[in-house]
Amino acid sequence: MALPGVPRSTNYRNESYAGSVAVVGDRLLAAGRVGRSAALWSSEDAGTNWQQVQDPTLASSYAVRSLAVVDDVVVASVEGNDAGLLRSADGGNAWTTVEGLPEAGEDEIASPVWSSGTRLWTLTHVDDYSWNKPEVCYADLSQCGKSPPPLMMASTDGVDWTAVLSLGGYDGITGTTSGRVIALEGNTPKLSVHTLTAGAEPPAAPTRTEPETVRLDTVPRNGSPTVGVRYHAPMYLHCGMDTFHLGSTVWQRTDDGSDLETGAGDRPIEDWPVVGQMLYGYATLTAEDVLEYSIDGGEVIATYEPAKRGSFCD
């Protein structure tokens, strides 16, 4: 049957959906999104009739991705909310943000939530891209993109959370009513299943490390470089090095030196500071219309002038 409060979708901007469903006592909760706002629906008669839960905390989020329940306490994993999790102590009527979790990376996606016995669980720092930031990669290229695995958190009430030792990599993770936790890892040649025994006290996690950073000298997106200043200037190499954006200007290459086009499958050139498809070099304007691109040690690997047309990447 149609859920209340869901308008007819005309395009992807106002589409709605319902995904995760949870049982809270004699009540059903369904989670999802209406247009651009998170939404929850409840049913008191096994799903025959539904009412939309009205709460401003839900409206301030983009979507509810999953639900976990212990007794009358429900936690919801949400997108578009800095807290990452919401909590209800009355079976899903009133909601507040969860404050007791470590601050996650700014690009983190919605974290999974699940329950096992009398415990609620979540992962924080899921898809944490903070270790890919230029200030991390320029500080030490060996740490670039090497973020620690997600941090597993446990709670009995959804308010106070404790970091526990992770079960390793995972592709799916769930809990049983007996209290057992099961994690599936499939990104290996052989499928692996990790478990935490029911009733076992989860071991405390080690302190999570933070990356070393360095202060960057950069050109504002709509600004112009100053002659003689050496700027940190990551270069995206998917389409090669023929054109380069610095500030508000597109620059075109003027030399015929070594090129690197990661989109064509080129392997990184030895001694160039490349991670993935990004080159972590420096840009220096030596004259109003001459730009040199160098790497650590000062070696100039390319020169540029203002482009006569825009940059195109296929």
List the main descriptive attributes of the protein structure presented here.
314 residues; mainly beta; seven-stranded antiparallel beta sheet; four-stranded antiparallel beta sheet; 38% strand
Could you explain the architecture of this structure?
With 314 residues, this protein is mainly β. The protein is built from 2 helices and 22 strands. The strands form 5 sheets. Strands 16, 17, 18, 19, 20, 21 and 22 form a 7-stranded antiparallel β-sheet that branches. A 4-stranded antiparallel β-sheet has the order 1-2-3-4, with no helix packed on it. The longest helix has 4 residues. The two termini are 45 Å apart. The model has no long low-confidence stretch (mean pLDDT 87).
H/E element order: EEEEHEEEEEEHEEEEEEEEEEEE
Query: What portion of the residues fall into strands of 2 or more residues?
Result: 35-45%
Helix content: under 10%
Radius of gyration: 25 Å
**What form results from the Cα inertia axes?**
elongated
Instruction: State the secondary-structure class.
Output: mainly beta
Question: Which helices and strands appear, and what pairs or packs with what?
Answer:
Blueprint: E1 17-24, E2 27-34, E3 37-43, E4 51-52, H1 56-59, E5 63-70, E6 73-79, E7 85-88, E8 96-97, E9 113-116, E10 119-124, H2 134-137, E11 151-155, E12 162-164, E13 172-175, E14 181-185, E15 192-196, E16 230-236, E17 243-246, E18 249-253, E19 274-275, E20 278-287, E21 290-294, E22 300-306
Antiparallel strand pairs: 1-2, 2-3, 3-4, 5-6, 6-7, 7-8, 9-10, 10-11, 11-12, 13-14, 14-15, 16-20, 17-18, 18-22, 19-20, 20-21, 21-22
